[in-house]
Amino acid sequence: MRPEVLFPLFAPIRSLPGIGPRLEKLVEKLAGPKVVDLCWHLPSGLVDRRKRPKIADLRDGEIVTVEVVVGLHIAPRLKRLPYRVHVHDETGEMQIVFFNPRADWLTKTMPEGATRILSGKVEFYQGQPQMTHPDHIVSPEEIASLPLLEAIYPLTAGVTLKPLQKATKAAVERAPELPEWQDGPWLKARGWLPWLASLHAAHAPESIDDLDPNAAARARLAFDELLANQLALGLVRLRMRRLPGRVIKGDGHLRAKVTSALPFALTMAQTNALAEIDADMGSDHRMLRLLQGDVGSGKTVVALLAMLNAVEAGFQAAMMAPTEILARQHYASLAPLCEAAGVRLELLSGREKGKRRTDVLEGLASGAIDILVGTHAVFQNDVAFKALGLAVVDEQHRFGVHQRLQLQAKGGAGTDILVMTATPIPRTLTLTAYGDMDVSRLNEKPPGRKPVDTRALPLERLDDVVEAMRRALARSAQIYWVCPLVEESDEIDAAAAEERYKHLHEIFGDVVGLVHGRMKAAEKDAAMARFEAGETRILVATTVIEVGVNVPTATVMVIEHAERFGLAQLHQLRGRVGRGADKSSCLLLYQAPLGETAAARIKIMRETEDGFRIAEEDLRLRGAGELLGTRQSGLPTFRIADVAVHGELLAAAYDDARMILERDPELESSRGKALRVLLYLFERDEAIRYLRSG
Ligand code: ADP
Ligand code: MG
User: Fold this and answer.
1) Which residues fall within 8 angstroms of residue 158, CB to CB, at 6 or more apart?
2) Selection from 439, 446, 434 nearest residue 269 by Cα
């Protein structure tokens, strides 16, 4: 249960002054529905009204606060003309300009002969200083209410600054003192203030420097948020570890058969990863391990050998892929190896129906099926295993954390979990998303891979590209032609692909194939199969081929409108070639002129094939929010912290969380109790349930 001291922060924003039903909806969209959300809505700018010149010293464009005596009011002859009020001080005169003012308001606010303090922007008109609609007009007695430093907040259509400032101010004032959850010496070393003081300071910037994400107040709040995130992940991890696992130790007889059927030897990286997996499976705690490896680094065979380990020990194993194509492909590549080992492998996707499906379900329940490859269909309720020892989830970023948990439930107690991701994730992001997992990295590609020759060409040279394709086809090359992602819409993408298909088909005839997300599953399979078999030699496709598709004989990748793709995506796509013995190339066709970011992306693509470096650059160029399409990926989004700039703080939070949980796993010490408040503050309530006395 949320501690009472936090209640005011979790009240609806409606309870704040100035937030009526209309603003409520807009501010909710902008910041969030609760008072605390406005606390996290930090200023994006600041207006400094501290300059207090005399009229004679005014300069064009400056924001100033001036003390003046009000003179004549000059109402306009026509309503659309400005209303002018003359004012002066002992050094000179200026005009204050209003459009469509309410006359009674104006005579009350600026009565002739009164002294007033005005704040706003000075403009010169025909050599004379004037101020249009001052931001503030107060009498000398009210001077205290005039904010000399004013925070500017990010706004949205329909929300103006003043009511938002007012509501935010009230929100911050409701924030209570909270027990200190950070380590004292660490705060001191950083020069950070307590939480409440930091919150106030973050909303009261005194200079542009204070808006920097690394300014003391903001850094402190960001660190709080990161620590809450790491602590929550740490608690999940602890709990997982505490759950009884099964000791799974195969005798190696199936593995031996498969390894001798493989046409290659494992790389050092594969061997090491497998040793780590074996150690986890063989221990009595539950495995939760991430296998990170660039495209083509050979994760599949590692997964297979791990699954065989489970089968040898008398368990079943399952491998989940994010798409139908990929599941079928895994099935096809594993089938001969499983056959060689005498292991029964089956496939379950949305397309297995009726009797076929019933048979598979029976085989799973009876234990007759050793290894299941499937899609999301495996999550369905009627799918039950006899003894699921290991679950492998491929291409994790298409699955969410939620599904990870579902999968665990499916296994019942003790199922080991291996998550594979082909998208190299920067270390910082690995921590925020997978801080609860152990990580193995395949940082070495299988030997004999040749670098992919990457070039960029403007789209105007499409005809040259077509000529180059003609030459490549003469050398019997196989070519992927990826069409632009127009929108997040299968339909529109499909139309673009169909058009390009028609165009290329006119030129090259029946060697051109087509696959896109709007095709029926069976059509997609058929198109992929024809390409794999070499019947078609150019495959026009949308990004459905992005993930995992493996046709080693394909050596050319053309990406049309490369400027519309993100770096991670370009890298994934390029990873579809360079998988076989032949030299491969990648052509990035772009629409000139290139924007700055797109140009930077293409430059990086030309410079390196190192997925981890590309991921780091991607993070730098885009910020974490957009990376991998954060929202659908299950990566957390932060309110204050920005992993693109707070990487160092994140690493510190990770270390800190580990140390805290080592010393005080139930968060019972006085710091531990304060940390519980922190978890609630950042709405990591779920993690608290993992504590014994949550
Ligand atoms: P990914 O990590 O992208 O899933 P895959 O598992 O699909 O990579 O492997 C890519 C290709 O590399 C496959 O054709 C696979 O057979 C091959 N491969 C895997 N390991 C090795 C190795 N040690 N030596 C040579 N080829 C390998
Ligand atoms: Mg793969």
Assistant:
1) 22, 26
2) 446
Place of tokens 């009240």: 11
Overall fold of domain 452-608 = Rossmann fold (3.40.50)
Q: Which atom of ligand 1 is nearest to the CA of 302?
A: 6
Q: Where are the domains of the chain?
A: 4-46+155-211, 50-146, 253-442, 452-608
pLDDT tens digits for range 459-488: 999 999 999 999 999 988 999 999 876 555
Count other C-beta atoms under 10 Å from residue 410's C-beta. Answer: 19
Secondary structure class of 269 (helix, strand, coil): helix
Report domain 253-442's class. alpha beta
Measured from the CB, is residue 550 less than 6 Å from ligand 1? yes
Q: Could you give the C-alpha distances from 196 to 8, 139, 173, 257, in angstroms and in order? A: 14, 32, 10, 64
Q: What b/e readout covers 124-148, taking b as 16+ CB neighbours within 10 angstroms?
A: eeeeebbbeebbbbbeeeeeeebee
Amino acid letter, 398:
R
Minimal-distance CA residue to ligand 1 atom 5: 298
Q: What are the φ/ψ torsions at residue 506 (nearest 5 degrees)?
A: -60, -35
Is 343 in contact with 254 (CB distance < 8 Å)?
yes
8 A C-beta contact, residue 127 and residue 92: no
Q: Which atom of ligand 1 is nearest to the CA of 448?
A: 25
The answer to whether 154 and 30 have CB atoms below 8 angstroms apart is: yes
Ligand 1 and 484: CB distance under 6 A: no
Concatenated DSSP letters of 182-224: S-HHHHHHHTPPPHHHHHHHHHS-SSGGGGSTTSHHHHHHHHH
Report the alpha-carbon distance of residue 675 to residue 653 in Å, rounded: 13
Q: Do domains 50-146 and 452-608 have the same CATH topology?
A: no
Helix (H, G, I), strand (E, B) or coil at 43: coil
> Which distant-in-sequence residues (6+ apart) come within 8 Å of 246 by Cβ?
284, 315, 389, 414, 416
Helix or strand run (H / E) with residue 506: helix 490-508
**Dihedral (Cα; 159, 161, 163, 169), 10-degree rounding:** 130
CA–centroid distance, 567 to ligand 2, in Å, is: 19
Q: Which residue has the tokens 């499976």?
A: 281
Could you tell me the distance, in angstroms and rounded to a whole number, from the CA of residue 300 to the centre of ligand 1? 7
Reported as a single tens digit per residue, the pLDDT across 278-333 is 999 999 888 889 898 887 789 999 999 999 999 999 999 999 888 888 899 899 99
* 301 pocket-lining for ligand 1 (C-beta < 6 Å): yes
- Check pocket membership of 446 for ligand 1, CB cut-off 6 A: yes
- The answer to whether the pTM exceeds 0.85 is no
DSSP E strands, 335-408: 345-348, 371-374, 388-394
Q: 50-146: CATH homologous superfamily?
A: Nucleic acid-binding proteins (2.40.50.140)
